[in-house]
Write a structure and sequence with these properties.
The radius of gyration is 43 Å and the shape is rod-shaped. It has 4 domains: about 140 residues, 3-Layer(aba) Sandwich (Rossmann fold), CATH 3.40.50.2300; about 100 residues, Beta-Lactamase (2-Layer Sandwich); about 70 residues; about 140 residues, Heat Shock Protein 90. It is about 45% helix and about 25% strand.
Length: about 475
């Protein structure tokens, strides 16, 4: 065994170690010449016997092997098998003068990286073939490393992952998904069968939605028969053979569902208690009003009671609807009108659309509506033979931000100053309250009134 070194002026950190295996010294010389031309920094080891081959493999692992096919002491295919058994990433280029097409096909099947004939022009291709073989090996190694990283991530990510066919048949699942389905790690087959039933039969609609880009929520049946709430997501991937597969992510949202249910129960209890306390406060204020002999104080207490009652109606709406974040103003206004106009002989007409607003906006809007209706009830109809009130609520189309319009109209005596909170020019507390509430609700209020011909108040407010 003869070892020769060629080094450029810039010494590299790690030399490429190349085995040139051939029992013909002239052929080895030709191969060495081309190698030196293409890879001047390579460490070249010439091998011309079985013993030298064994020694070369035992001393240090080669980075590349160039071998003849037909040798007196070993077949080139045997060389290929031994090298690939040592490390499948070692590139092997076979150069032969006797092998035909059948040999080339068999060598390719065994994993040879390139196959050249022992001809002058073919030897000139040796550096190119070697570089291509090195590049392919590097790409295979990078692809394998990426696949290994993906496999590690797939297995250890704390989200249930599965590889599925388009029909929902599960091919593979990670430990997190096995845990969601209640399967031990040592029984993946049972879990895959259960997951396949969930996706392809029990929840086929949700599976199709997930493949389409949605993230549907559903309930998977575990192996112990219990149901667990999950959300599914899927993305299309290509299988190794080019077939269409889907990576399915399954997140167990049972703890979130449980927390939401607990939150709902707590909120329901909170709003129930707040509503009860407001009712008690209303009754207390009315009791004080009934006990006082001062008309002005009684009137102020009654107005305070009405305002507390308006807030209580918002709380009641939240409690009854089960939605603790938003209020339907139509339902609120219906209850408010029923409570305010149940006694007086005043005709009430309504045209109310569903307008859903957050709680933070519902309370000031509700108080404003209460103030406007209470003001009309108290001051608008002195001497009016057939009193009437009209209330309408509708969405405003074409606005960049969603807005709504509340109209309160009466056929009463009108106002002298156009202020909706008072029927006299003194600009009292009601007026100041409405202006303050308008700012809170981001509302614009417009009043049209004429003595003896009634009042029309338009409240334009932001919905969301």
């Amino acid at each position: 065994m003869r070892e020769r070194f060629w080094a450029s002026s810039n010494e590299i950190e790690a030399r490429v170690r190349v085995l040139v295996i051939d029992d013909n010294p002239d052929d080895r010389l030709l191969a060495a010449r081309e190698l030196r031309r293409g890879f001047p920094d390579a460490s070249l080891v010439e091998v011309d016997s079985a013993g030298e081959f064994d020694t070369a493999l035992s001393e240090a692992r080669p980075n590349l092997v160039v071998t003849d096919y037909q040798m007196g002491w070993m077949d080139g295919l045997d060389v290929l098998r031994r090298v690939k058994a040592l490390d499948p990433d070692i590139p092997v280029v076979m150069v032969t003068g006797t092998g035909g097409e059948a040999v080339a096909v068999e060598a390719m099947r065994e994993g040879v990286d390139d196959y050249l004939l022992k001809k002058g022009h073919e030897y000139a291709r040796l550096p190119v073939a070697i570089q291509a073989a090195i590049d392919r090996t590097r790409q295979r190694r990078q692809a394998r490393q990426a696949q290994e990283r993906y496999r590690s991530l797939f297995q250890h990510v704390p989200v249930g992952l599965a590889i599925c066919r388009a029909g929902g048949e599960a091919v593979e699942a990670n430990d997190a998904l096995l845990a969601i389905l209640g399967a031990p790690p040592q029984a993946p087959g049972v879990a895959l069968a259960q997951l396949s039933r969930c996706l392809s039969v029990n929840h086929r609609t949700e599976w199709e939605a997930a493949k389409g880009g949605a993230a549907p929520e559903t309930e998977f049946q575990r192996l112990d028969g219990e149901l667990t709430a999950v959300v599914m997501r899927a993305r299309r991937i290509a299988g190794e053979d080019g077939t269409e597969l889907f990576e399915c992510a399954v997140t167990d949202i049972t703890p979130i569902r449980r927390a939401q249910e607990e939150r709902t129960v707590l909120l329901a209890e909170l709003y129930h208690r707040v509503n009860n306390n407001l009712q008690i406060l209303t009754a207390f204020v009315l009791t004080l009003a009934n006990r006082t002999s001062d008309p002005a104080v009684r009137r102020s207490l009654e107005e305070l009671s009405s305002r507390i009652h308006s807030i209580a109606l918002v709380q009641s709406r939240l409690y009854k609807s089960g939605d603790y974040a938003r209020v339907n103003l139509r339902e609120f206004l219906e209850e408010l009108l029923a409570s305010l106009f149940q006694g007086p002989d005043i005709a009430v007409s309504t045209s109310l659309e569903d307008v859903i607003v957050p709680v933070s906006r519902a309370i000031p809007i509700g108080l404003m509506a209460n103030e406007l209706l209470l003001n009309a009830l108290k001051h608008a109809f002195d001497g009016v033979v057939e009193p009437s009130v009209s209330v309408s609520l509708r969405r405003l189309p074409g606005e960049p931000k969603e807005r709504a319009l509340l109209l309160v109209e009466d056929n009463g005596v009108g106002m002298t100053d156009g202020e909706p909170g008072e029927r006299s020019p003194r600009g009292g507390y009601g007026t100041r309250l409405l202006k303050s509430l308008s700012r809170q609700a981001e509302a614009k209020m417009e009043t049209t009134s004429e003595l003896g011909r009634g009042t029309r108040i338009a409240l334009d407010f932001l919905v969301s």
